[in-house]
Hints:
The structure is a homodimer.
Chain A: E1 2-8, H1 10-13, H2 21-31, E2 35-42, H3 46-59, E3 62-66, H4 77-85, E4 89-91, H5 93-105, H6 112-115, E5 119-121, E6 125-127, E7 136-141, E8 144-149, H7 153-171, E9 176-185, H8 189-195, H9 197-201, E10 207-214, E11 217-226, H10 229-247, E12 251-253, H11 259-270, E13 274-278, H12 284-290, E14 299-305, H13 308-313, H14 319-325, H15 330-343, E15 348-354, E16 369-375, E17 380-386, H16 391-413
Parallel strand pairs in A: 1-2, 1-3, 3-8, 13-14, 13-15
Antiparallel strand pairs in A: 4-5, 6-7, 7-8, 9-11, 9-12, 10-11, 15-16, 16-17
Amino acid sequence: MLAEIITIGDEILIGQIVDTNSAWMASKLNEEGISVKQISSVSDNREHILTALAEAATRADIILITGGLGPTKDDITKRTLAEYFNVGLVLNADVLANVESIFKKYNRPLLEVNRKQAEVPENCEVISNNNGTAPGMWFNDKGKIYVSMPGVPFEMKYMMEEEVIPKLKMVLTLPVIIHKTILTVGEGESFLAEKISDIEDSLPANIKLAYLPKMGQVRLRLSAYGKNEAELKDKIDAFAHKIVERVGINVVAREDIPLEKVVLNYMAEKGLTLTTAESCTGGYISHLITQHAGSSQVFLGGAVSYSYELKESILGVKNETLWQHGAVSSETVKEMVEGALFKFKSDYAMAVTGIAGPGGGTEDKPVGTVWIGVANVNKTLMKKFTFGNKRLQNIERTAVAAFYMLITLLRESEK
Amino acid sequence: MLAEIITIGDEILIGQIVDTNSAWMASKLNEEGISVKQISSVSDNREHILTALAEAATRADIILITGGLGPTKDDITKRTLAEYFNVGLVLNADVLANVESIFKKYNRPLLEVNRKQAEVPENCEVISNNNGTAPGMWFNDKGKIYVSMPGVPFEMKYMMEEEVIPKLKMVLTLPVIIHKTILTVGEGESFLAEKISDIEDSLPANIKLAYLPKMGQVRLRLSAYGKNEAELKDKIDAFAHKIVERVGINVVAREDIPLEKVVLNYMAEKGLTLTTAESCTGGYISHLITQHAGSSQVFLGGAVSYSYELKESILGVKNETLWQHGAVSSETVKEMVEGALFKFKSDYAMAVTGIAGPGGGTEDKPVGTVWIGVANVNKTLMKKFTFGNKRLQNIERTAVAAFYMLITLLRESEK
Lengths: 415, 415
């Protein structure tokens, strides 16, 4: 089953926004066994949209369209779809009620231009929008399915998850697909591939393995295709088990979640608390943690100690340690992490100090040199890393390495 | 002058990576007066690539292609281009020398598959790749320009900036274009549009104004098209000046830089230092600051005080303040920001405390309630905000509002 995605709007074509919608939609469709043949971004131009729709229909069974549904003059998706299907526009009472209720909620007058948002091509089935005024629209035409959705990411995502994907599964005969993701940290893609090559070679034709690398982490995703869900599940679990056993300590999760969430989930379950002391990551580690709802159950807080003075005053790092060994040293990171642990009174602490770059490197401590420490009341682990010369990558890789070290200490300690 | 961008490779179509290249390329092309008509992502499939090239050539004068130039079997862009132009592949000595030098540098044996990377279609002009083994290729065919580049972002960006854009400017008669960006904070797009509508109406046909809104900020970008650079510059500066005067305090920069960089540049110039005390933003504000090289000149560090205890122990917030008024209150944010200012010994401090959500809201303090404080030794400003119910958006909007408040205090104080 093939799909195409068409995004409509000039914002993408002038480079004002990055099209993140399409990748998200493509990954959701792939999970259901629908392959995406092409993604096209076209302008708010009648002829151009008509051509794109016609071209897509020659290649795909399902055409998903986002954007161009706003109330302003340059949003022409709806009337162009009506032209494409050769139908008129009709006022839809449910959509009008939704628009009216939104305007009432925000106490804004309903203009004629807003009423027009309730007009839809007469051959469409309306998909309700719980998060905005523009309706989604589903069309069946000459054996193809067309779905038009707003370009606002959270409106589109809600529609896809709640309405479009379930409806596609209902009306199409899609294969049963089961995915199983294994999150690994600390080894490269090619090393992992070599380590599990015989397991990969033994996979049956209906189970595929994908390597999804990202900044010090590799996700191994098994996908099983077939008809019998229970049978597929048993099979995929058996292979996942083999891979997990073989890869060993580099496996940190058997589900598709962010690395910091692995730590949060585990510590929340055990009732443990965490604090941080960040120098070169400058708050990025605590930001990763606190972007997740409920993180306050585990995370008490931390220090961003960029200057020598704050390393001393907040964390209690000794002045002579800093001057004798430098801010980027095992001695300093040890005092930082133990300072966080005892001063902030948490069960676990993590600390990082390094030279993110591009400036600040020296011959014996080049840009990319980072010391990471993790501690609980019984043990402190410290390790030196040498990353590259790109500031943002160094910050990201430091965070990943720090979480992995924390997982190592948690494994040793919480048995 | 019209361009199209074609990205080749399955990673985008399965949603594994987001296509950030195209937006970057589109914005660079637009700066030079080249409009992008369509962006297409297609699979590593010969027929599909041939169709995409042919379709693009019916619409555009310049076709930029990225991806599919790696050494492995599934990278078929090069031989498909040769087929499209109906030519053979030839070994290019310069490209081979580059491939060999890279393999020598990393001490890896040169395989036959790597030697093949030095083969290019015989009608192409090679664009050298200083950052990798895959060459760029420039083709002139039937009055159209085709350029093929690697999909690795930093390889592509370097080629575009150093080779492709300069060459396009040389061989094409492009208009002179000058852009001028004004960064505003704190007012919505429609309010700004109304405020400057007469200035916008008075713009000559060769000067366009674009509104680029993003999370509490709106960038106003003036673009002037013509032949005489000096004349355009005078004209655009005059209109920019009018807009800046009219918009007033909401203008925070007359160049296209991130909001936090406005603060950093100004404070660095004045020799001022900054610290932070973050609760609901959980390190995001300090992360925004410290992602910029050289931020340590201004930023000393800060506290991420998620728990009551850390608000007390690091920042010196009084226990009775927290219990009497709650963590989200003017009293608490005042003690937080003054705690940071005096304990961390900086010239300026900023503090935020709020309910990011989705949990934790109450009737009088719903999710999205945020108190922000900024201070110097003479003055403390505090303000309450009511944002929405989306955690990540609340974090971002809080950061933007906090930087804007800091700019307000800097303006009042540093005259």
